[in-house]
Amino acid sequence: MDGLTKKQRAVIQDFFTGEMDEAAVLAKHNVSTRRYEKWLADERFIAALDRRMARAHREALVIIARYAPVAGAKLVELTDSEAAETARKACLDVMSMSSCPPQPAPGEPGPAEHPAELSPETAGRLLAALAEAQPQQKHGARAGQGT
């Protein structure tokens, strides 16, 4: 096995389930600060905790990846919002998303060198929102100059 006690395994499991923070989990299992510090110096405990943290991060990435298409579609819808500020922010978010392609997994080939292409309608909305933002920024800069 992993060389951990049942209590150590239970503490690690409780760190990632429920709503308890670290102190509450340790109190629940009657683990003193001194004992916990000893566990933190134990390579086996740290390795098991690191594996569980990596698993939690992978689970979060899977959830984010699952809903990314929905979030992307909603952002594109918001580029046509009646509220100018909402449309502008959505345009900026869409542009930043398309300029940051996901990183390939180790051993997988990298993405193509060309950025993802936007539909003509989306590109037009992005340009219109940016054009609206430009005069506002210039007007604000002039007002601040006192001319």
Question: Could you walk me through the main structural features you see in this protein, from its secondary elements to its overall organization?
Answer:
α1 (6-15) packs parallel to α4 (43-78) and α5 (84-99) packs across α6 (120-145). This protein has 2 domains: 1-66; 79-101 and 116-147. Helix content is 70%, strand content 0%. The chain is built from 6 helices and no strands. The protein has helices at residues 6-15, 22-28, 33-40, 43-78, 84-99, 120-145. The model has no long low-confidence stretch (mean pLDDT 81). It is elongated, with a radius of gyration of 25 Å. It is an all-alpha fold and 147 residues long.
What's the layout of helices and strands?
Elements (H helix, E strand, L loop, with lengths): L5 H10 L6 H7 L4 H8 L2 H36 L5 H16 L20 H26 L2
Helix pairs in contact: 1-4, 4-5, 5-6
Radius of gyration: 25 Å
Overall number of structural domains = 2
Mean pLDDT: 81
Helical content band: over 70%
Give the class from helix and strand content and strand pairing: mainly alpha
Stretches with pLDDT under 50, minimum 5 residues: none
Which H/E pattern describes the elements? Answer: HHHHHH
Strand content: under 5%
The number of helical elements comes to 6
* Amino- and carboxy-terminal Cα gap: 76 Å
Morphology call: elongated
Could you describe the largest sheet, including whether it forms a barrel? none
Extended strand count = 0
